[in-house]
Amino acid sequence: MTDIGSMPTAVANTTDVLNSANSLLTSHRELLTYVRNSQRAHRRQLRALATAPNDLVNFPLIDSPASSPLPSPPSSPQLAPRTRPQRQDLHPAKRARVTRYANYVPEEETIRNDYSQRYVDSGEWPQNRVLGAEPSRRFEEYPKQQRLLSLKKESVDAHATPPFFLPFSHLSSLHPQKFDVILLDPPFSSSFGWDDLQALPVPSLAADPSFVFMWVGSGAGEGLERGREILAKWGYRRCEDVVWVKTNNATNRGPGTDPPTTSLLTRTKQHCLMGIRGTVRRSTDSWFVHCNVDTDVIIWEGDTADPMRKPPEMYTLIENFCLGTRRLELFGRARSSLRRGWVTVLTESDRAKVGEHARTGEGDTVHPWNKDSWEEATRHLTSLAGGKCVVPNSQEIDALRPKSPMRSGNSGVSGGVGVAISGGVGVGVGSAGVGVNAGNMNADPNMNMQLVRRPPSQNQMMVSPMMGIGMPMDMGMGIGNMMGMGMGNMGMMGMGNMGVMGMGDMPGAAFQWVGDGDRMWEDGMMAGIGMGNTGMGVGGPGMGMGMGMGMGNSRMGMGGMGMHGQWGQGYDGFQ
Fold first, then answer.
1. 224, pLDDT greater than 50
2. pLDDT, tens digit, for every residue of 460-491?
3. Is 94 exposed, middle or buried (0-12, 13-18, 19+ CB in 10 A)?
4. Helices and strands, number each (H, E), in the chain
């Protein structure tokens, strides 16, 4: 047991030992510095000799001490890896995942990843971990989609004009040509702003219909709002927003090294607004657009040699979507924008970078803008596509491409029979309705004047996924001295009345009948009894409210309905 009285002496001894060690280390460092400086001085003298002893001159010096590391921001503590117990109760596939992935949760079938914390600790952006982001790997598990993209690329390459370019100062020489697609990457600077962008002659260069794609920045400033305003003034309607999500696999310098920004979150994306001019229907205008071939998100690292360059995948996205062959890019780059099938307008500085025999990345010879040559190439492509400036569509491409969803609409007829005996027979057709998005409705094509009771499994309206809206019509017919006809109105969620009213010497009475218990919606919506010459009429279930009116020995009835998931056990005269 340590004596309390001896503790100050122990502390003093520890302090003396540390001070002595520090003094010894300081003396050792000074000695090494003196020896190293002496070695350098002696070697300088040896090199000055006529025949220098190379063996001694090249002898290594005493190693220098390692420099102190620079202060780094604190990071989360590194936890020691945990050994996970073997789970013999799991399926072999799950046991393999448990062994391979430390953060795999077999009960949830998920791999938990905290990418936000990883960004804080390492500076790595979460999108770096997206698998299959490269176009070459994106559809590895979807052979049909791979085949579709391959066919479209072959078709676009086979029906494209040669690559043309011109400087921005010659933009007016494009008039009066029209283009199906216009791509812009505005070079905003102190000498070029939003007003200058709006003044560009884009409306006079745009065909009808046509599309425009315009990069507007990361969303930190007014780019999104001003971009929409300019599209509207050019005569375009904004229809999509393509987003380029950047990765930093090659540019990550550690936590806290992202460029400073005034935004609340670290911005790692760029927006490209897409506008449409004219009328294009995705379901009927497949000669001009193929929708849903690509997504509106592009993941790309960027170009370290040209930080302002936009993803090259944007060209493929446009070509897959719009089949128009007249494509124009404003403010392109000489090193990366020249492309087969496009006319590229370069800035003056980029124009000087295009050599006399320049070629694109695919090996196509680049041509200075020549209106006659471009028109001749366009006329040739038009003749191949049946008189339209588009990439012709093939049967295989049309079979593989995603189709626009069809608007479902089914119709059905269901009705009841009301019989009135008054010198003849009166037949009332309950309702005939047309349903919109009503799932499946059954209809009876035969109209027999019989009063029958259907089982619940027949004459049903299946409400899946949505209940339809009916436009009913009730109609009464008389034989003998009674005739009636009525037009009905729509009713929803109602339990109505059906009555019989006598006219003249024909007294009438009316009442409401709703069925028994929880079968009130199935055993018949309403019934009416007419006293006197009108007899009795029974109205079957119908969608809506109807009125019948007769002259002479007539009856007048008004019926309502309740809306339910199925129609059954009502009185129906359609067999």
1. yes
2. 333 333 333 334 343 444 333 333 343 433 33
3. middle
4. 12, 26
Cβ(184)–Cβ(213) below 8 Å:
yes
Distance of CA 404 to the CA centre of its chain: 14
Average pLDDT value for residue range 387-398: 93
Higher pLDDT, 67 or 271: 271
Residue 427 CA, chain-centre distance (Å), reads 55
Report strand pairing: 367-368 vs 164-167. parallel
Dist CA 222 CA 233 (whole Å): 17
User: Taking Cα atoms as reference points, which of 533, 542, 538, 423 lies closest to residue 478?
Assistant: 423
H/E stretch holding 17: helix 7-47
Q: Output the CA–CA distances (angstroms, integers) from residue 269 to 219, 242, 556, in the order listed.
A: 8, 10, 70
Q: Tell which wins on pLDDT, 100 or 557.
A: 100
Cα–Cα distance for residue pair 433/427, rounded to 1 Å: 18
Relative to beta strand 327-332, strand 412-413 is unpaired
Under 8 Å between Cβ of 333 and 350: yes
Quick check: 500 and 557 in contact, CB under 8 A?
Answer: yes
Q: Virtual CA dihedral for 308, 309, 311, 316, nearest 10 degrees?
A: 140
Better pLDDT: 108 or 236: 236
SS3 content of the chain, % helix, strand, coil (to 5): 25, 20, 55
Q: Read off the pLDDT of residues 236-276 as tens digits, 9 standing for 90 and up.
A: 999 999 999 999 999 999 888 888 888 888 899 999 999 99
Query: Strand 536-537 relative to strand 557-559: parallel, antiparallel, unpaired?
Result: unpaired
Confidence band (pLDDT; 50, 70, 90) for 437? very low
Q: What is the separation of C-alpha 316 from the centre of its chain, rounded to a whole number of angstroms?
A: 17
Mean of the per-residue pLDDT values of the chain: 72
What is the C-alpha to C-alpha distance for residues 172 and 168, in angstroms, rounded to an integer?
9
225: tokens are 């709002």
Q: Which residues lie across from 425 on neighbouring strands?
A: 421
Strand partners, 477: 427
Return the structure tokens found at 358.
Answer: 């320049």
Give the N- to C-terminal CA distance of the chain in Å, as an integer: 107
Compute, in degrees rounded to 10, the torsion defined by CA atoms 365, 366, 370, 375: 60
Alpha carbon 176 to its chain's center:
35
pLDDT of res. 405: 66
Query: From residue 162, how far is each of 343, 359, 373, 422 by CA, in Å?
Result: 9, 11, 9, 86
Using the 8-state DSSP alphabet, how is residue 5 labeled?
A: G
Closest by CA position to 320, among listed 191, 148, 514: 148
The DSSP secondary structure of 90-113, one letter per residue, reads S-HHHHHHHHH-TTEETTTTEE--
Residue 315 is which amino acid?
Answer: Y
Shortest CA distance to 310 belongs to which of 276, 289, 339?
A: 339
Mean pLDDT to the nearest integer, 441-447: 37
